Structure formats: C-alpha cells, structure tokens
Amino acid sequence: MSITVTPVTGLPEVRPGDVLAELIAGHAELADGDVVVVTQKVVSKAEGRLVEVDPADPLSHKGVVGSESVRVLRRRGDLIVSETRHGFVCANAGVDLSNVERGYAALLPVDPDRSARRIRDGLRARTGLTVAVIVSDTFGRPWRRGLTDVAIGCAGIAAVVDLRGTPDTYGRELQVTEVCVADELAGAAELVMGKSAGVPVAVVRGVDPAWLGEGSVAAEVVRPWNEDLFR
Amino acid sequence: MSITVTPVTGLPEVRPGDVLAELIAGHAELADGDVVVVTQKVVSKAEGRLVEVDPADPLSHKGVVGSESVRVLRRRGDLIVSETRHGFVCANAGVDLSNVERGYAALLPVDPDRSARRIRDGLRARTGLTVAVIVSDTFGRPWRRGLTDVAIGCAGIAAVVDLRGTPDTYGRELQVTEVCVADELAGAAELVMGKSAGVPVAVVRGVDPAWLGEGSVAAEVVRPWNEDLFR
C-alpha cells in the first residue's frame, strides 16, 4: 500500500544528443509499473533545446521568453507570466538559465508528452520493463507562495484520474474528484531531488496500477481557454 | 535517500470531540522525523466544524459558502471561487459535502496551523516522538485541470524551503527556488489515500531533516494580496 520515491544518482551531465533512456537504464533499478520522473532540464538538454544568450546581460533571455510565449498574462518588473504554445502558464515561458551552461538558456521540449513516450519506449527496449514516464518542471502558481514541480508531459500513466461518480464512504456520489496524479507524482519526486543536488530523475514505486495506461498532459491537464476562469 | 509514503488504515469514523492524536497514535507506526499528513475533513469533524444544510436542496450550502468567504473571485454556474478568511483561494470556500454525514457540510478549521500543532503536541505527549504534521485539503487551480492536495496548515516543518542562493551545479547562484515542500508532501500523501477509500492520514518517512522545525502555512504559503498578480 506504500509508495516509495527514490532518487536516481550518478547520472552524468546530459548533453545534446544523449539518449536519456540509456542513461536512466544504466543508473536506475527499475521494475514493471514504476513511474520514472525526469526533470525538464535534462530532457531539454538531451533534445538540444538550448539557445545562446548573452552571459553579460542578465535580461538577454527575455527576448527568448517573448518568442516562446503565445500570450503574456502578467508582467511585473522582470517577471513575465505567459502562456506557452503548449498551453502552460508559467514564469518566463519556461525559459531557464539555472543548471544550464553559462551563455545558454534551456527551452521547454517541443512536445513533452512525446519526450516522455520516447524515454518510455527506450526503457522498454533496453530493459524489457513497462514503466510510466513523467517529464516534470518547476512552476509557480497564483495565490500560494513557493514553487512546486508539476507534470508537463507523461506516457504510460493517466495524468488525471477521474473519480467522479465513485461513491464516498457515505455511499453518495462524489461530485467532482478529478485528481491530477501526474502533478502529485512530479511533486513527490521533487522531494528527493533537491534543487542543487543535480539529481534529475526519481523513481516512484507502488502507484495504483489502475492509473497505468494511456495518458497525456496536453490532453488531460492543459485547461482549454474557454473553460478557464483565470486567463 | 528514498522517502516512503504509507497510508494509515483502520481509523474509525471521526466525530466531533475526538482526539485525532490519540486515534493516529493507535493506528500509525511512527518514528522521529516522520511527517504525518491529515486530511482537512477529519480535522474539521474532530473540531466540530460542521453546519447543518438542507439535504433536499443541493444548493443549500451556498449560503454557508458566502459566510465563509471574504471575497468572491469568480462565479460560473454553481461554482464559486472565493477567498477564505485564511487567505486561501478555492472552490466553495472549502465548504464540502462529500464524506460528511447527510444534512451536514464541513467547514475549514478556524486555524489549520493550530490544528496541526495540536495534533503534533498530542502525538509527542502520547508517543514521545517528534514528528511534523500537515493538514491537507483538495484544491483546484487555474490553468490546469484536475485537483491536487495542498497544505492548509503545518507544524514542525517549514512549509516553504528557501533554496535561493544555493549554487546550482554550475556554481551560479539560483535566482528563485523557494519550494513549497508542504504542498508536495500533501500531494504525495494523497497518492496513497484515494478519494473514497476513507484513508484520512498518511505518514511520509525520509524527508530532509533540514526542513523540520518551525513552520506555518498561513505565514509562508498564503500570498499577500499586494504580491499577488491574479487576485
């Protein structure tokens, strides 16, 4: 009934062209049904999603933020909260300088669900195991201070588990209980990674097998414009 | 290096006046440094935060929502997104009918940090152990579908861990990495609770000991009005 969350240590610095599935298979002890959480930073690096910025100018990546945004929601000082073409709303369109070589900024993967599928397929090919993969990133949110890791892509697991209609312990129908387990798994993984420890992968073991199967952050988590009360 | 998240099963139905620390101490295997996550629903029940509603009128709790709100942010159909007097922004001001006896609605605890402290002190008195306690609730959020569990109160653990200034793996200063570990722990606990399984408590073991100590959701997580871009 317990779940365990284990950091995958000893991975080398990831460079463009690296095959993440190979690196992970070589360093993680995996089992069928595990959920492998991989941070966006190493996915972007492996996929070559890096652009040059002026290392002497702390704001030179702001032009990149503009081109990565389809819509700016808020601006205060240096902070830009914008919507990416994936439909994510986050600071600086996900463009990030931390843990990236000086003079470069990392962009979000073009299609993070596809990134997750590629890692999952690669792990299956190398290990024979069927695991789920979540690509995570660190986002802020309105109304609450502090950042949390959320899922920007997934494969082999439902992002949102729909418990609507499951009777509660009083036998009544629950009205709305769609739980975003992908975000909760991404956050749980972050608890063992640490920001500066350089641990970009964690393995969650023991999740409800009913959650495993088809899944997509783009299709399940990104809230369509016309449903959203805060855009 | 791993963390484990374990549901606490076998707890009886909680009623007003019950001492949660006693129930938890009798059913959980605890150790120093554990984080005990308790859902708001049982905290509210133990504290008698229940009000009568008309069981024949599915909207009768909406009046309660009004009196629990200091400000309504959005309204669409039956959905009210409002700010509670704690400063939480959530649907229906946290007023909830699910897993509550028919004819009653559960309100949020008056001071969830205090609720967490009371459980923590009670566990220390009964077991001699020093644990942290998080009171969790299930909130929606803008821009992303699906609900996640977040912390509404805590004791014995920092809600937000400030990693600003910790050098990244390239030796540069990180600019902003304040991680809301309390929310990530609440979400991790939810992964083993299940909505209708009636498991209101989970124990997280193995968190970074540096996070343990003073903590408060009200002081650390609730974003002051004047800092908030989305209120």
Structure in words:
The structure is a homodimer of 231-residue chains. Chain A has 231 residues and is α+β, with helices and mostly antiparallel strands. The first copy, chain A, has two domains: 4-47 and 109-222, CofE-like (60s Ribosomal Protein L30, Chain: A, 2-Layer Sandwich); 50-108, CofE-like domain (CofE-like fold, Alpha-Beta Complex), CATH 3.90.1660.10. Chain A is 24% helix and 25% strand. Chain A is built from six helices and twelve strands. Chain A has helices at 20-27, 40-46, 62-68, 112-127, 181-193, 217-220, and strands spanning 3-7, 35-39, 50-52, 69-76, 79-84, 89-91, 104-106, 132-139, 148-155, 161-162, 178-179, 201-205. In chain A, the strands form four sheets. Chain A has a five-stranded mixed β-sheet with strand order 1-12-2-8-9. A three-stranded antiparallel β-sheet of chain A has the order 4-5-6. A two-stranded antiparallel sheet of chain A has the order 3-7. In chain A, helix 1 packs across helix 4 (112-127). The first copy, chain A, is globular and about 55 Å long. Chain A starts with a strand and ends in an 11-residue tail after the last helix. The mean pLDDT of chain A is 91. At the A-B interface, strand 1, strand 9, strand 11 and helix 5 of A face strand 1, strand 9, strand 11 and helix 5 of B.
Cα(first) to Cα(last) distance of chain A is 39 Å
Q: SSE order of chain A in H/E notation?
A: EHEHEHEEEEHEEEEHEH
Strand-pairing-aware structural class of chain A: alpha+beta
Q: What is the CATH fold-level name of the largest domain in chain A?
A: 60s Ribosomal Protein L30, Chain: A
Quickly give the CATH architecture of the largest domain in chain A.
2-Layer Sandwich
CATH top level of the largest domain in chain A? Alpha Beta
Q: Total domains of chain A, how many? A: 2
Integer-rounded radius of gyration of chain A = 18 Å
Tally of DSSP β-strands of chain A: 12
In which order are the strands of the major sheet of chain A placed?
Answer: 1-12-2-8-9
List low-confidence stretches of chain A: none
State mean pLDDT of chain A (0 to 100 scale): 91
